[in-house]
Amino acid sequence: xxxxxxxxxxxxxxxxxxxxxxxxxxxxxxxxxxxxxxxxxxxxxxxxxxxxxxxxxxxxxxxxxxxxxxxxxxxxxxxxxxxxxxxxxxxxxxxxxxxxxxxxxxxxxxxxxxxxxxxxxxxxxxxxxxxxxxxxxxxxxxxxxxxxxxxxxxxxxxxxxxxxxxxxxxxxxxxxxxxxxxxxxxxxxxxxxxxxxxxxxxxxxxxxxxxxxxxxxxxxxxxxxxxxxxxxxxxxxxxxxxxxxxxxxxxxxxxxxxxxxxxxxxxxxxxxxxxxxxxxxxxxxxxxxxxxxxxxxxxxxxxxxxxxxxxxxxxx
Length: 316
Prior knowledge:
4% of the residues lie in helices and 43% in strands.
């Protein structure tokens, strides 16, 4: 692996001004572009909350977009659309797929924008996403919040899902490794779904990392999850590396899906990077929050998939 900028979560020293401006995008008339001259994001206000695009200025969106679903709203069924969305875990049908096809309330405060969804009729939950871009560099802070408005307590975890464009490779990190003499007890779960097949060549394990390729010719879904107190998910596609990180407080048993703070899913059309917060019992009027930190990196090359190469990639 060789690249021309360090993969860190810190902005560059040059101080530009991040700004938010209303714009049209992909047929939606009410969107907002957040930009600082180096990177830009586009969020939708006609549906959501959702970040539909993240890119270097003038560059290609690193998120997938399902063209036939763009520019539309008011559908009677849930739409994947692409981009980054907010759900409540654990996954249930039909509650998880509550509609997010209606307009959201957008509030701009400097370089920060908040997108507040109407209360979901199906669940009584109200979801909010706040996006803040650094004054320079590529660092983005995304705060996810879910409030329970019903009188019945709801056990849930905030679940942040990012759908990446096809053709790349996902990288996730295990918590620090150790020797048998040093650590006798388990350090983390590795969670499988009924369709998980670790003999599938799209998966690769190293001692410290798990990788998953997206293959546009392989329609078979794959998914796995793990726990890492310093949760890391990344996606390398055509030389551009997207990184998202989150803190995972508490123990793995506090988390959904047998203790996952991170999950990754792929089929032929996209790959998903998912982080999760601890489970909470949200009473009426109570909310749960979860923060991700994003960054983008140019001209990244992965010469091999091994611990030394991936360590250099993430400067661990």
